[in-house]
Amino acid sequence: MIFRVRERNRKFGILLFVFAFFFVLFSINTVWAKKLAIKASVANIRSGPGTKYEMLWQVEQYTPLKILDKDKTGSWYYIKDYEGSIGWIHKDLLVKMDTVITKPRDERCNVRSGPGTNYDVVFKAVKGVPFKVIERKGDWIHIRHVDGDTGWIHKNLVW
Prior knowledge:
alpha+beta, SH3 type barrels, 3 domains, 42% strand, flat
């Protein structure tokens, strides 16, 4: 009888440990897998956490970036963009905002006057154009560019 109680307690302890391990693992990934957007008109992506590091490329307002990590001070974020390129950016250049960036299958993607292919094309966007999300409706996203152009784009054409 005592053996059965100990065996149940041991199994319960193992099960509890496995649950706690996966809870912590997925909680950490959720925190650092979030996306933030550029709030400045233009921001520099650098090779390290500081202005003394080389500027690798620049991004424009509304560009979404995935946060992978941060430096020891918490002031610089290690990021990944929609193409998988990595670098560092200062946290003050980022804001929590729903944004997308175009990633069409071809050279350009249609931005329409409404949420569906039956709506007129109002303009075409090339790869790498960031937009602020106004609303989401099913598989369609109502977007606004920094220059004021608005329209609807299918979710499969953005990151």
